[in-house]
Structure of threonine ammonia-lyase:
Amino acid sequence: MELVTISDIEAAAKRVQGVAVRTPLLLQTWDPRGTLWLKPESLQPVGAFKVRGAFNAIGALDEERRSRGVIAYSSGNHAQAVAYAAQQYGVPAVIVVPDVAPRIKVEATRAYGAEVIEVPIGEHEGKARELAAERGLTLVPPYDDAAIIAGQGTAGLEIAEDLPDVEVVLVPVSGGGLASGVGTAIKARCPRAKVIGVEPALAGDTAEGLRLGRQVDWPQADRARTIADGLRAQPSELTFAHLKQVVDAMVTVSEDEIREAMRTLARKARLVAEPSGAVATAAYLFHAGELPAGRTVALVSGGNADPALFAEILAAG
Amino acid sequence: MELVTISDIEAAAKRVQGVAVRTPLLLQTWDPRGTLWLKPESLQPVGAFKVRGAFNAIGALDEERRSRGVIAYSSGNHAQAVAYAAQQYGVPAVIVVPDVAPRIKVEATRAYGAEVIEVPIGEHEGKARELAAERGLTLVPPYDDAAIIAGQGTAGLEIAEDLPDVEVVLVPVSGGGLASGVGTAIKARCPRAKVIGVEPALAGDTAEGLRLGRQVDWPQADRARTIADGLRAQPSELTFAHLKQVVDAMVTVSEDEIREAMRTLARKARLVAEPSGAVATAAYLFHAGELPAGRTVALVSGGNADPALFAEILAAG
């Protein structure tokens, strides 16, 4: 299987420049260890790193194919990212979402001009493939795609540029596109740095899979238990192959740790993180014993927290 | 009276480089007008733009004087900024705070290694001057100082670099150091852009003063009514002279508008803003009729919201 290379990520960096925000690394001066930098991908257009991959994937299409339009299936941030990227390229987008997706994300997707089609959970991928064939649209998958992985990897390239002596990179893992891309960039540019994947324990399929050295399949109903609605997917064959190469270890975090990390991010880092966006910070805060010491970047992957849930979490602790 | 120049601000930019975060401009893609960029100074160390001025002021002292230490009086973010900057320079800091200051800010100031002295409100400036004389410390004023104004102006320099065709810059006004510095930078680099100062209506002394063409004095008790605890000061002779030169107009916002802007910043921009940090965004959202149209930067000056207040505001709307 052919893996994404640092050259692919460098090419992606040129495509996303000026569209994705060059997010700064934020040293957290309140942290007693003094070794935590945040990469706030929550500040991207659409509020998540996903805009990097979407832009790269649509930009990599030939003009004729691109102009016919794109289609995506997603429970959230990927939907918005594809809608936004398509709008920027001036091409039509259809987004198929499960009907349990957070309302805030569905509405935002529509606001970017996409046609949104809601289907029962579990059917959205099939429906998207069916519509792609029917209407001649190009499917932009959420993670199982080399251009998506390369696009997400541009966040890793920026980490390496801004903190060349980084020692630990903490990155959330779900479908694995982000961790594959960021890990590939870090291993190429900062080969001594450790790349640590982070999952909710309730959706810890990749931790188990990497420990066993093979893909495992957790029932959807099990993965759906976590509050981190962006981390309920599991790697594809392609992303799993990358993760085996570039992830040094996995850490799993509890639901309470995710909530506490959201509070810390709001109060100390002044960032609104969605639950999925807080897991890397939760690993730093609550699993120091499982992590190498040293200059650490925690990637805050997204900020689209449901307003009511966010208010409840802030009020609770 | 000698005003701060663009050269002073350029010199300050060299001093703060690598210490203050080079905050990005964040285009707000959810905004139907499509003309809003945020400058998130809430992401600075200590959570506010104040670190720029403090660093520049302490950095501009000669080594002998600096080594004896610094002292500041402040109700909040300036305190933390001076404490943090002094810690970075390795010199002692004493901070005199009014005993009504938000606890989160007092605790954060102590965490940066400063000696914190709490006195009744209204006495903190006098006490600081007394201690400065007694202990041979250099007073770092919150705004009435050319080095502070030049330091804050570096935020304006960055706006001009990142969006050279900016048309409107919205900046909070309290003591006026930020607006003086940012306005000076913008007028030098983007002379066609309008610089608009924003105040809470309940502390609208500068709006009144600039309308009358002379400094006015509002009773402390009146200014204390606003939720925006960072905007209760009023300009000095020095900052007022700058504001007359570089501020094209003033806008005042209501308390409800400030709260609504905090909710919008959290939900749409994924930023935690303190009330003072939200006034420029409130002006954009609710006072479009008083503002020139066009590419607008709203400066989010700080993010140190009291956690309970922030949770209450998020839950309320």
Summary: The interface with chain B takes residues 21-24, 26-27, 29-30, 40, 42-43, 45-47, 84, 104, 108, 111-112, 263, 266-267, 269-273, 303-304, 307, 310-312, 314-315 of chain A (CB under 8 Å). The radius of gyration of chain A is 18 Å. Residues 146-162 of chain A form the longest helix (17 residues). Chain A has two domains: 6-45+145-316, 51-139.
